User: Fold this.
Amino acid sequence: MLHLPKQNADLENTRTWAKYSSKLCGHCVASCCSLPVEVKTEDLVRMQLIEEFSLQEDPKYIARRLIKERLVDHFHARTATFTLARRANGDCIYLDCSTRRCIIYFSRPDTCRNHPGIGPRSGYCAFKKKPHNAIP
Assistant:
């Protein structure tokens, strides 16, 4: 029997996060999709935000273009990582507002593919229970 966490996690306090189990995902409002997502240029190609030939460009130029298009919020030159844009409420721009599901699931970045194995607290997730009247 699945035992859901008694309290909702605080995204800012990883000590409130629940030990990850894939069964939790069906009962969660996708709180992990409200965390900042760092991606590499290979992810941007998979997500079809840039073409493969763009890998030859200076990442700073790619970042400038994607920031202007509001697809990326930041570029970290030292690590050559981009932070995906988020909505005003903190949700990833690729999270469907009504279903709370990823609209690019099959081309999602490695950070999302490997969550919660990587991230602020490896092996734990920021579980927040769906309301009873939520759409499955």
About this structure: Residues 10 and 16 are 6 Å apart (CA to CA). The beta strands are 18-19, 38-39, 72-76, 81-84, 124-125. The chain has two domains: 1-35+92-136, 37-85. Residues 1-35+92-136 form one domain.
